[in-house]
Amino acid sequence: MNVQELVRQALHGEIATTAPPPGEWQGVLTRGIEIRRRRRRARSVLGSLVVVALTMGTLAAVGTFTGRPSIVATPAAPSALPARVVALTSDDRTLVELDPVTGALRRTIASLPHDVLRVELTPDGSAAWLWEQPDGLPCSAQLNPGAIARVDLATGTVGASIRGASPALSSDGRRLAYVDVPCDAGQTASSVVVRDLVAGTDHRLSLQSPPSAAPYVVEGPLTWAGDSRHLVVGVTGYSKTTGAKSYESWYVDAAASTIEKPQTIPISYAGPLDLAALGATAQFAAVVPGTTRVVELAVPEGTVRRTLIDFPDARFVSIAGIDQSGRHLLLLVADRADGSVALYRWSQGDAQPTRLAPGIFAADW
Asked: Angle formed by the axes of helices 40-55 and 25-38, to 10°?
C-alpha cells in the first residue's frame, strides 16, 4: 500500500461512493474527525509517513486527478507569492510550514493537543488562529462549538482558548469573529461575537430574522469583507412544518449591535457559501454550492462576475485560504475517483491551478 493510499484512508476514514448533499461538507469533515479519533493509534505511525510524503518532491510536485488529462500550470511568479503556507496534515494535529512554490515541507511547527478544523494566518505571519475540536466538549449543541486558540508560529506555543465555532480573522488582523454556541443556561440561540484583539473587548451581534421567516440558526461560515468592517454570516433555516433545511448568507455591519433586518445576499444556490474576500474590494471568491466551480461574486449584490477556475473531475472543492492581496488562493480538492484530498494554489492570471501537496486538511498563507 503506497503513502497516498494511507493518506487517503487517514483523511477520510471511509470514502463515500457518492457526494453528500450541497452544503454538507462541514458535516462530513466533522464526522471524519470522529472516525479518525477512533483510529488515533494507527495514525501515529501514519503521521511520519505523511511528513515523508510532503518531503518527497515527486508527491509534492504539480499533479493530476486520476482519470483526466494532466494539469499544466502557468504559475504566478515565485516572488509574487506569499512567503509561506501554514498547513495541517491529515492526522489533524501536525502543523507544518510548506514552500508556497513547490509545496515541499520546510519544517514542523507544532504537534497540537487537539484535532483542528481550520487555520487562519495573521497578516504579519507570526501566528495562526486554530479552530480546535477537543475531546469532552461541554455541550451537545447542534453546531459543535469546539475551541479557538492562537499558536505562535516561531515557538509552536498554543495560547488560551475561546469556546466557539467558525472563526474568521479580519484582513487587518484586528478583529476575530466567531459563532458563540448556546451551551450556557439561559442562552437560547447562537450569535456572532466580534473580539477586538487589540483592545481585548468583545462585541456581540444580535441577528434577528423576520417573524414570518423560518427560524434561522447562525451556524457559519463567517467571512470578513475586505474592508474589515462587514461580515458575511452563514445561517441555516429550519422549516416550522417539515424541518427541512434552507441556507442564507447575510451581509452585516460588524459594528452594529442589533440587526433586525439582515441584508440577504440574493443567491439561489441550495447550500452555504464558501467565500474569501478578493482584497479590499467588494468582490469575493466563492465556491458555487453543489459544484466544483470557483467564481468571482459581487457582495452583497450576489452577482457572479466570472468563473475563476473549475475542477470538473473533482468530488468537491473548498477554499482553504487567501493572501492579503486577494490574488492568491489555496484550495482543497478531492479527487472524484478515490476521494483523496490535495492542496492546490491558484493566482489571478494563472491558466490552471498548481498542486502543492497531498493529505492536507486545512491551510492558509
From this structure: 110
